[in-house]
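Field guide to reading this record: the first block holds the primary sequence, the second block holds the structure written as discrete tokens, and the final block holds curator observations. Each block starts with its own label. This record concerns SET domain-containing protein, catalogued under organism Cannabis sativa.

BLOCK 1 — SEQUENCE
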Amino acid sequence: MANAEEEEAKLDCFRQWLQVNGVELRGCKIKDCDSNKGFGIFLANDVSDGVLLVVPLALAITPMRVLQDPLIGSECREMFAEGEVDDRFLMILFLTVERLRKNSSWKPYFDMLPISFGNPLWFSDDEISELKGTTLYRATVLQRKNLLSLYEDKVKSLVEKLLTLDGGSDREVCFEDFLWANSVFWARGLNIPLPRSYVFPQIQGTKDDSSSTEKSSEISPKIFSGELAKGVDEKGLQAHGLNSQVNEETASSTQGETLWVEGLVPGIDFCNHDLKPAATWEIDGTGSITGVPFSMYLLSAGQSSLQINKEITISYGNKGNEELLYLYGFIIENNPDDYLMVHYPVEAIQGVPFSDSKAQLLEAQNAEMRCLLPKSLLDHGFFPEGVQKGEDEKCKRDHVCSYSWSGQRKMPSYLDNLIFPDNFLSVLRTIAMQEDELYKVSTMLEELVGTEGERQPTDTEVRAAVWEACGDSGAFQLLVDLLNMRMTELEEHSGTEDSDTDLLKRADLTEAADSLLVVKDDKSGEEDDKSTERYLVSRHKWSCIVYRRGQKQLTRLFLREAEYALRLALSEGN
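BLOCK 2 — STRUCTURE
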């Protein structure tokens, strides 16, 4: 009872804080969802214009706000000018410092945020071991190591230095404070479209500060690293914004071009994710929609089914379980946006025959050594599950046909059902290339550009030459090998897909940190009979099992596609 009263008191304090800072809850309210999801936004009353929530962007935590902060702004600008910190680091540093400050003005907001997160960075060693064999395991282990090193080498001393400006803190900074700030930033951050004039105002009226500020949005991220860094970094901070829109007046503002700035928007960031969102967020630059210039607002998607007291959700984007678990700490069973990452290790190229020549060809193709295979591709493969092919297949076929400029190689019959990206297949063709094929490629490219090398061949021309010289069978065989290796690695650590399915069937979720075995029924009389046993499984472990089972399922299905394509290619002499 006392805990419920404390939660309500924090919520009341947060509502007052929002009101003082100009936030308007016009058709919604913030309340607790459950122990797993935390707080969310719910419909309170119907609004004629669909505007449910309005937040002035002056309240957002952005690099600009940190650099202008009255307490630590001056120190941060100095560190920024010296290249000690970048824009994302600034925000995570700010969150860490404000969490420890005695009288932080952000306390009502921070009190509403989780004290720990469900992403793997917060898992125990036992829980992380459930991810062994997956891309997420390697990324998590590497990221934890990087964050701990960053904390010890830089963050701890910086936070202590900044806290002295406010008379210190009631307790010492620890790694968990930095980990918390890092998780808040990545789980709740948005990519906000703003006019340049709003992003780059004159700070303290000085030229140096202005140029330093502009530099903040141009520095490349240093915080997020690891195997998932490339894929998540490109999409992660689009988070809620993938399904958002920019008010047309803002986009065409006379104040200048629109820039995308990362930041936290208190209020909006309490929207939870759903595959069928009830709302989107938008930007009102002029105030013509909300009456509040430079504001972010939550707009109802116009669903007639949305009822009073029902949760208002948004979409974080079309994200697979790997990304959802890594960034936000949750997964979706049977996620239609799930994907499998396949990559050829860059270091392994040095071990293949004619590695130097092949490396040059890969460079000429602007080759990516990895690719994402969305689950949706399987709907158009050799073994579709009730989905009709559309115009995307015709476009793909025409794209491949354009490669055959000499007509030396007959176009294969299976192109309509080939679901693997041709750019990645070209990488595999190049790596698997035999000596005579390498000579053919060199000859064709020389004929194309001239013996004197008057110009460099385009990446498309190089891929075309590689395809005509090599065909598909070598690439398909290498792809089959990669997928088999992936499956072996997955099963070596956690068993088969069927074993994960069986475990999930007999699992009972518990909010406890550890999982344990419970025998529900021992009436069978057979000591070795496991069919009646059920498991209490922590939510972290349950998420790991669902994720890795999905990876095994996708590996199995894409392997079936690759093996069938290989058989067809060999039968057609391709």
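BLOCK 3 — OBSERVATIONS
Confidence is low (pLDDT under 50) at residues 203-255, 387-402.
The radius of gyration is 27 Å.
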